[in-house]
Amino acid sequence: QLQLVESGGGLVQPGGSLRLSCAASGSTLNYDNIGWFRQAPGKEREGVACISKSESGTYYADSVKGRFTISRDNAKNTVYLQMNSLKAEDTGVYYCARQSAWSQSAWSGLCVLSRVNFYDSWGQGTQVTVSS
Fold it and tell me: 92, 39 in Cβ contact below 8 A?
């Protein structure tokens, strides 16, 4: 059974950078689209970035475009989220998740960032706090 573990969160000043990792065990990620999501206190979980299994497609929320980069290393069974120029509004718990097989098929292999319920396996999250 797939298990996802996020790491790399922490406290960083505005303008700083962090790299989050999502390591998988129990199953390979090579055939799955993977998304990064975040949830701030009192707010709904929102999609940040996703990457297709073939690496041909990456998608970003408008709020992070140009600052965040999602990538994957299939040999290491790991997906990364490089976050630069961090802002206070980036604060939250960051989760990685696997997009369900049926939604990958239904959307012709595209990763879908806007539908949280399309993702069926989630990590426990890692806290990111951007503050001076």
Answer: yes
pLDDT digits (tens, 9 = 90+) for 88-118: 999 999 999 999 988 888 888 889 999 999 9
**Six-digit token pair at 110?**
């595209």
What is the distance between the alpha carbons of residues 126 and 58, in angstroms, rounded to a whole number? 22
What stretches of the chain adopt beta strand conformation (E)? 3-7, 10-12, 18-25, 34-39, 46-51, 58-60, 68-73, 78-83, 92-99, 119-122, 126-130
For residues 71 and 107, give the distance between their C-alpha atoms in angstroms, rounded to a whole number. Answer: 20
Give the pLDDT band of residue 55 (cuts 50, 70, 90): low
Task: Please say whether the beta carbons of 15 and 84 come within 8 A.
Answer: no
Tell me how many degrees the CA angle 108-62-129 measures, rounded to the nearest 5. Answer: 115
